[in-house]
Specification:
Layout: E1 5-9, H1 14-25, E2 29-34, H2 41-49, E3 54-58, H3 67-74, E4 79-84, H4 101-122, E5 126-135, H5 153-173, E6 179-184, H6 205-218, E7 225-229
Parallel strand pairs: 1-2, 1-4, 2-3, 4-5, 5-6, 6-7
Length: 237
């Protein structure tokens, strides 16, 4: 039986690192990417625990020039799951009125355009019945944005844009047997989720990761585009 494999884009910390470890524990081959110049000691440690099962590479999803070298490093690999994890919270103010052009460009490039562009380049490496997964957020749901006040409008906009770009990818491949999932991981105790420890999250990394892996397994043959959370609840677009 063919060993299952996953590509995790954005694995140097937080949920990406948690997903990498969890899939290694499950016996998968994992290719994990990290930002150039970032601390990869945790990934290297996992590689020592699971020798031969983990390969790493670097990419900044906002930098187009990084795509071709990554594709070259991936060579002729094929993946059962490609998980686009990379993302940022953006400026603390989260306000369109206060945001500079650079702040808006950074959050949209990192959370939406960059992952979608890279995903399109990676599609030839996704197995014919594979799953392309995007780390979305319930904040990207337009229908569910009924909270009073403005709040998180930059982050919301970036995740809503990601959801739409994911849908565009799905429409392109929808005649085949591949699945696209947009998953809300929950409010997780990561550096991003707690704003570097200044607020409390609702769940830990392991709870989120185990939930997301279960959701992916349940829907790997869905042949559709679904917006779900780590507890397998559907979210309105």
């Amino acid at each position: 039986m063919k060993k299952q494999s996953i590509l995790v884009v954005g694995a140097e910390k937080g949920l990406g690192q948690g997903l990498t470890e969890a899939y290694l524990e499950r016996g998968w081959d994992v290719f994990a990417t990290h930002l150039p110049g970032t601390d990869t000691s945790a990934l290297l440690a996992l590689g020592e625990i699971y020798p031969g099962n983990l390969v790493t590479g670097e990419i900044d999803v906002t930098n187009k020039s990084h795509i071709e070298p990554l594709i070259g490093r991936l060579h002729e690999r094929r993946f059962d799951v490609i998980f686009m994890v990379a993302g940022i919270y953006g400026p603390l103010h989260q306000s369109v009125l206060q945001a500079s052009d650079a702040e808006f460009q950074q959050i949209m490039m990192t959370n939406a355009f960059g992952p979608a562009r890279l995903a399109r380049h990676l599609l030839p490496m996704l197995e014919p019945e594979g799953s392309l997964v995007f780390m979305s957020s319930h904040r990207g749901s337009i229908a569910s944005n009924t909270e009073p006040g403005i709040g998180l409008e930059l982050y919301r906009a970036s995740k809503a844009a990601l959801n739409m770009l994911a849908r565009c990818i799905y429409r392109e491949i929808s005649q085949g047997a591949q699945t696209v999932l947009s998953i809300h991981p929950g409010w997780v105790a990561t550096a991003m989720g707690t704003l570097d420890g200044t607020v409390d999250a609702e769940i830990d990394v392991k709870t989120s990761v185990n939930g997301m892996i279960s959701v992916i397994e349940q829907h790997r043959n869905a042949r559709s585009h679904l917006f779900l959370d780590y507890e397998n609840n559907s979210w309105p677009w």
